[in-house]
């Protein structure tokens, strides 16, 4: 991409690339634009979380049984409102909602063909300690006929059917990083004027890296293969030992590893038989981004985007990042005799 493209605004980028999206009737562009708007609104609140009484548990718990931080609730409402009010999608599923939300899909005039799955504020336990958090989204074309009510089948699609995916990272700067299947591009928000600018065109995972990201506090509960891979990362040999970096915010760990090279792991364990991360609105979108950025994502055995979903909030083990690092970890996972 020529330098002249740098500092292109997100709006200009969407318009310029709309024609390259083979199915676009402009609806997907409007969808990305609505996510852009919601991201700015949520960013405004996240940035002042310490200043107003908007942090701390909202008193409710979500389907995950996790205390809902008020910002979780706020972000969930804002993203759902923004996509609903603009009549862009026909259904939304959210980490914060027990069931999916149908949006006028039974209206025969509703020609909207996309459904969105979202983790409105991932890593929210970091809010109170001022560590970066993120929003993750995944977009599919509905599989049921337009003008009929959406069903669970519209949401339980394999990740390889995604038409778009991305995240917002609310960090030292706020970035929107997304793909529509033609590479990964990162946009940085200028908060002074509320505009996202193309700052990271064609983002790619380095094939190799020297950062591994895993919660080593769970080490004794990990499968043998993961334990052996972690020990491999720590050995003195060649470019090892690697550096251990774990923020506890998937979007932030993923973002750093995509820029510098690295691997993120949330494996299954004796504590979490299927791991912790959710397939539909965390692992699938991050896997789509990883593969579009020439990285890899699996559960240690199966490509994440080939996993057949069975329920909205199902969890899967997740290994994602630089291609050669993921393949090395898979070797250890597959061959317990090493
Ligand atoms: P643990 C945040 O809750 C999250 O879903 C990811 O963003 C993060 O990587 C992981 O869980 C942290 O989980 O068990 O290590 O605190």
From TrEMBL:
Keywords: Carbohydrate metabolism, Cytoplasm, Hydrolase, Magnesium, Metal-binding. SUPFAM superfamilies: Carbohydrate phosphatase. It is found in: Cytoplasm. It catalyses: beta-D-fructose 1,6-bisphosphate + H2O = beta-D-fructose 6-phosphate + phosphate. Its main location: cytoplasm. InterPro entries: FBPase_C_dom, FBPase_class-1, FBPase_N, FBPtase, Fructose_bisphosphatase_AS. Homotetramer. This is Fructose-1,6-bisphosphatase class 1. It comes from Winogradskyella bathintestinalis. The gene is fbp.
